[in-house]
Design a protein that fits this description.
mainly alpha
Length: about 270
């Protein structure tokens, strides 16, 4: 089962990066972002922020290669999260196929829920467990997991806002209120994740980037209320991240100080 899990992760990580590339090359439908260029809701970040997918795909490939190494076949970290990440990468590839072939957007929303649930679960197991990632693993393992989990934290709400808009359920009088509700959902999810992952930087920095995109997108599209709310949320999550990092570092410092103060010969 270990070999199957490792191959599944490697194949799915390659697929989630390759499918969008086929769209941009004109070999598989339209580009993956085409439906979202037509329907722009206030929850959808500015277009240029989607460039982060290149970094996400790269770090996910680094993770997939790392977990595929024979020397790490029995690594407990990969045993805890391997099937979750394989499912997330595969669902992401399927989402891209559906989007590029212009299937109904509700199908992309349902498939994306799989990526959302599995990646958040993987991030919690990686960053929220008793054993913290050490050395290069903080980015070779945690980088792709944290970045993808963070991006889908916002993207799932953006995706469903587009679905509702396609169903004509986001008319102008209610669009801003609906966007604020979606943004609140994304913010609450992010706050819980930042707290439970102890302010993991791959997650927190990517959330920050997504919210910058929401701010800039709404300034460009003329919705200052949502831009202001996203900016406030960005600041609040930044403070929360700093507090979590500080709290996670303090126990070690206190225990170190206690050890130094311990009289010689007492243990």
């Amino acid at each position: 089962m270990s070999l199957i899990r490792r191959i599944a992760n490697l194949a799915a990580a390659l697929a989630q990066a390759a499918v969008p590339a086929l769209g941009y090359a004109g070999l598989l439908g339209r580009t993956v972002d085409a439906p979202y260029q037509v329907i722009k809701t206030p929850v959808v970040p500015a277009g240029y922020t989607f460039a982060i997918w290149s970094a996400i795909f790269l770090f996910c490939l680094v993770y997939a290669v790392e977990q595929a190494r024979p020397s790490r076949a029995a690594d407990p970290v990969f045993r805890r999260i391997g099937w979750l990440t394989a499912a997330a990468f595969a669902a992401n590839a399927v989402w891209s196929v559906l989007a590029q072939l212009q299937f109904p957007l509700v199908l992309t929303g349902l498939v994306f829920l799989v990526t959302f649930v599995t990646m958040l679960a993987a991030a919690l197991r990686v960053f929220g467990g008793e054993q913290a990632l050490q050395g290069a693993d903080r980015w070779t393992v945690g980088g792709g997991i944290g970045m993808l989990a963070a991006w889908v934290t916002v993207a799932i709400f953006a995706n469903w806002s587009v679905v509702l808009a396609e169903w004509n359920l986001a008319d102008r009088p209610t669009r801003t209120l609906q966007a604020l509700a979606f943004l609140a959902g994304a913010g609450l999810t992010a706050a819980v994740m930042i707290r439970l992952t102890r302010g993991a930087l791959p997650y927190a920095l990517t959330i920050g980037w997504a919210l910058v995109g929401v701010v800039m997108g709404n300034l460009e599209r003329g919705d200052p209320a949502v831009a202001a709310a996203a900016a406030l949320l960005l600041a609040a999550l930044g403070v929360l991240t700093s507090v979590c990092i500080r709290d996670n570092a303090e126990p070690a410092g206190r225990s170190g100080g206690a050890a130094r103060a311990k009289p010689a010969g007492t243990g």
